[in-house]
Automatic annotation (TrEMBL):
Domain Phosphagen kinase C-terminal: 24-255
Pfam families: ATP-gua_Ptrans
Protein name listed in UniProt: Protein-arginine kinase
UniProt superkingdom: Bacteria
EC number: 2.7.14.1
MF-aspect GO terms: protein arginine kinase activity
Species assigned in the record: Aquibacillus rhizosphaerae
Enzymatic class: transferase
PANTHER family: ARGININE KINASE 1-RELATED (PTHR11547:SF38), ARGININE OR CREATINE KINASE (PTHR11547)
Regulation of its activity: Appears to be allosterically activated by the binding of pArg-containing polypeptides to the pArg-binding pocket localized in the C-terminal domain of McsB.
Length: 354
């Protein structure tokens, strides 16, 4: 794979597959934070130290493969244009924090885009592994294997009492951040999600928007993740998260059933109005697009819309983001120009599906 190939496709290859409970759980992610032994963490390290780590990672892992994760492509942030960085953020291949770094940052990405290994973000190494649907256990097992593979060539900073040492105290211990991306439109429509979020936070979990900390829950998509790792085993963290996610899946299904029984006509009207907006708009903002895509996805999952696939909606969620629109246009666009192009691309894609 090359940078251009990562740019050309809105939807990552792994996203084309369906996993368990994929009508509600869009994806499962495992992230492991690691640091080189006896090297200052990125937040205080000298530029030369970080440059040495970049050089080492490129030399040892560029174009390497591990099991099914083929041809890991190494990209330096310094070599990537701002719009290209934004596309990588929109595809969840790098974090917004790494995108802001102009020097000493990098990433390894597998050709399936299922694995990305960020270099010199908040920690020296941050391994990200994605699975479609609700597959936290499978993702964790695969992440452990990748971690062991990296450790064959890297001595990680580790304390016998504390565990893995990281820049952020909340990551010390396992260095694990597990998360799921969930589509919860019925809980949002019935206004139950606002009451559930504080209860989830009290369990040591955190609810964020689609792009993590500080981001908005566009299109009724919420990211649920663990908050603390110190003193907990990886399995304990996963079990706690799985328990909450299972309850949310159950409550979302109940809310969908309630809507179909008590407000079926109003729900159907909302879904097809949103579909009509997407099919006919000439100008559309990103927030309205996300809201309409959420309604249409709900319509597909509940059987109201039968001729559009969920894969198309996953693709449009990314294709209509500001970075991807400008990458598609091959130039910087004003907000209004983005709104016009966004409407045009959505119409074109839905017409192809029809």
């Amino acid at each position: 794979m090359s940078l251009q190939q990562f740019m050309n496709e809105a939807i990552s290859p792994w996203m084309k597959e369906e996993g368990p409970d994929s009508d509600i759980v869009m994806s499962s992610r495992i992230r492991l934070a690691r640091n080189f032994e006896q090297v200052a963490f990125p937040i205080i390290a000298e530029p030369d130290n970080l440059e040495n780590i970049l050089t080492f990672i490129e030399k040892e892992f560029n174009h390497q493969s591990f099991k099914s994760y083929q041809d890991l492509e190494f990209l330096k942030m310094d070599d990537i244009k701002p719009i290209e960085k934004r596309v990588l953020v929109e595809k969840h291949l790098i974090s917004p924090h790494l995108a802001e770094k102009s020097k000493q940052g990098g990433v390894l990405i597998s050709n399936s885009e299922q694995v990305s290994i960020m270099v010199n973000e908040e920690d020296h190494i941050r391994v990200q592994l994605y699975f479609p649907g609700f597959q936290l256990d499978q993702a964790l097992d695969q992440a452990f294997e990748i971690d062991d593979w990296l450790e064959e060539k890297i001595n990680f900073a580790f304390d016998e009492d504390k565990g893995y040492l990281t820049s952020c105290p909340t990551n010390v211990g396992t260095g694990l951040r597990a998360s799921v991306m969930m589509h919860l439109p019925a809980l949002a429509l019935t206004q139950k999600i606002s009451r559930m979020i504080p209860a989830i936070n009290q369990l040591g979990l955190v609810v964020r928007g689609i792009y993590g900390e500080g981001s908005e829950a566009l299109g009724n998509i919420f990211q649920i993740s663990n908050q603390v790792t110190l003193g907990r085993s990886e399995k304990d963290i996963i079990q706690d998260l799985e328990s909450v996610v299972q309850k949310l899946v159950e409550q979302e299904r109940k809310a969908r059933q309630l809507l179909s029984e008590e407000t079926a006509l109003q729900l159907e009207d909302r879904i097809f109005r949103s579909y009509g907006i997407l099919e006919h708009s000439r100008i559309i903002e990103s927030k309205e697009t996300a809201k309409c895509l959420s309604d249409v996805r709900l319509g597909i999952d509940m059987g109201y819309i039968k001729h559009v696939s969920k894969t198309i909606l996953n693709e449009l969620m990314i294709l209509t983001q500001p970075g991807f629109l400008q990458q598609y246009a091959k130039k910087a666009l004003s907000p209004q120009d983005r709104d016009v192009l966004r409407a045009s691309l959505v119409r074109e894609r839905l017409n192809l599906e029809n």
